[in-house]
Design goal:
Distance between the termini: 48 Å
Mean pLDDT: 89
Number of domains: 2
Largest sheet: 7 strands, mixed
Structural class: alpha/beta
Number of helices: 8
Strand content: 25-35%
CATH topology of the largest domain: Rossmann fold
CATH architecture of the largest domain: 3-Layer(aba) Sandwich
Radius of gyration: 18 Å
Length: about 280
């Protein structure tokens, strides 16, 4: 598949680059790399709409007085991996977990090495939402616990849960490319015996009868608010829900909706206005 690489400079960078990433995610951009002052964003070429980019940039100028300069180019499918390798650096999280690509070496200085292939799926650890989710996961006890990862992307969160002794992990996503990439990553990390991955539509959650101790959803505010009642039905008593994909100023709206379904805010961590939080079901 061919992709468009959007190369932009957002001024001022903080906090508006993260806001720009969120806006790009809403129109189909799937992966992001920060390279010095540049933000690189990628979208399947067939989904690229320059009018939407211009509209977002105009909105930023009017609402935030922020300036976005950008250019774009086509990346043919045959040189996608080469492009990623030029920009892809390992990510270390909480001093325990190192996310590497297949062309990197294992690092024995870290408790967990996770191999994630450089393809167009969300969840390489480079973005705050993924790294913050991983920080929360590293604090929890997964031994012999069942986990569901909703909108699993590369599968990185489910893979980590498997490595820290979850008994089983169900990863679900509605994107074929993400599923294909996650299947490869699960195999790379020797997790095929623990992780089941499924390509599903938005109605699939309602059909799941199995109950889990943990549920992950690193998606976005609107989807989480709409589906949080469904997440509640997936969890056992005192189950834990880990959420990210939204900003710290959105937490109140998320929390208000969560409380309707007997969730209590347990912990939150914030970085560059992005937030990840855990909610626990009441007894």
């Amino acid at each position: 598949m061919d992709y468009i690489e959007l190369r932009s400079i957002v001024t001022p960078q903080i906090p508006f680059q993260d806001v720009f990433i969120s806006e790009l995610s809403e129109i189909g951009f799937e992966s992001f790399v920060e390279e010095n002052e540049y933000l690189l964003a990628y979208i399947p070429a067939k989904n690229f709409d320059i009018n939407k980019i211009e509209s977002i940039c105009s909105h930023f100028t009017q609402k935030y007085l922020s300036v976005i300069k950008y250019g774009y180019n086509l990346i043919k499918s045959h040189n996608w991996n080469e492009e990623w390798e030029k920009n892809y650096e390992p990510v270390v999280i909480a001093g325990k977990c190192k996310i590497i690509a297949p062309f990197h070496n294992f690092d024995k200085n870290y408790q967990y090495n996770i191999i994630i292939g450089p393809q167009m799926s969300f969840g390489t650890g480079h973005h705050e939402t993924t790294s913050l989710m991983i920080e929360l996961i590293l604090k929890l006890n997964f031994k012999d616990k069942k986990v569901i990862d909703i909108g699993s992307g590369t599968g990185v969160l489910g893979i980590l849960a498997g490595k820290i002794e979850a008994s089983s992990v169900l990863c679900i996503d509605n994107d074929e490319n993400a599923i294909s990439n996650a299947e490869e990553n699960i195999e790379r990390n020797f997790m095929k015996d623990k992780i089941i991955i499924k390509l599903v539509d938005s109605k699939y959650i309602n059909k799941i009868s199995e109950k889990f101790e943990y549920a992950f959803a690193n998606i976005n505010k609107n989807v989480i608010i709409n589906d949080i009642g469904k997440y509640r039905n997936l969890l056992k008593n005192e189950g834990i829900l880990l959420l990210s994909g939204f900003y710290d100023f959105d937490l109140k709206d998320i929390q208000n909706e969560a409380e309707k379904y007997d969730f209590i805010l347990n912990e939150k961590i914030i970085k560059n206005h992005w937030i990840a939080c855990s909610f626990k079901l009441k007894n």
